[in-house]
């Protein structure tokens, strides 16, 4: 199944200190197998906060190898419904988290994340979570 890696997975894989972590290794494997999807809000989060302009541009250039999956009003409306559904279930999340859920449903992508919020969302939203392959 194709996956939608969350920002936290990309961040681990892109940090030199975590370059050989299980998540970095799994992301590399998924990329090599052409199984990775990306959406604009995740791209923005990955690139946000990089203080050195040269480093930010280098990373942006590397990420240009990944074409963003298009999002439209249905995706945003579904994300808003998911937000409301989460609140009804006593769970909070960010607008970006629910947009990730919405895109994953539309494109039938499994979400690859370490963020426990998505585990909570999976109890009542029709999302699937990616588990790294055993080493």
Structure notes:
With 135 residues, this protein is mostly helical. It contains seven helices and two strands, in the order βααααααβα. It has helices at 7-14, 22-32, 40-47, 53-63, 73-88, 95-106, 116-121, and strands at 3-5, 110-112. A two-stranded parallel sheet has the order 1-2. The longest helix is centred in the middle third of the chain and has 16 residues, at 73-88. 27% of the residues are buried.
Short description:
This protein is mostly helical.
In the CATH scheme, the class would be Alpha Beta
Under CATH, the topology is which?
Rossmann fold
How would you classify the helix and strand content by structural class? mainly alpha
Strand order of the largest sheet: 1-2
Number of strands: 2
Question: Helix segment count?
Answer: 7
Shape: globular
Q: Could you tell me the mean pLDDT? A: 93
Largest sheet: 2 strands, parallel
Task: Output the keywords.
single chain, 2 strands, 7 helices, two-stranded parallel ribbon, 4% strand, 53% helix, Rossmann fold, mainly alpha
Write the layout of secondary structure elements.
Layout: E1 3-5, H1 7-14, H2 22-32, H3 40-47, H4 53-63, H5 73-88, H6 95-106, E2 110-112, H7 116-121
Parallel strand pairs: 1-2
């Amino acid at each position: 199944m194709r996956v939608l890696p969350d920002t936290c997975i990309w961040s681990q894989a892109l940090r030199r200190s975590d370059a050989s972590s299980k998540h970095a290794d799994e992301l590399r494997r998924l990329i090599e197998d052409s199984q990775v999807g990306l959406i604009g809000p995740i791209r923005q989060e990955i690139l946000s906060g990089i203080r050195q302009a040269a480093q930010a541009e280098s990373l942006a250039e590397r990420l240009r190898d990944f074409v963003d999956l298009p999002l439209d009003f249905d995706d945003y409306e579904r994300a808003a419904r998911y937000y409301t559904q989460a609140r009804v279930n006593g769970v909070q999340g960010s607008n970006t988290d629910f947009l990730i859920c919405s895109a994953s449903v539309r494109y039938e992508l499994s979400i690859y994340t370490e963020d426990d919020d998505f585990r909570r969302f999976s109890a009542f939203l029709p999302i699937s979570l990616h588990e790294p392959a055993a080493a």
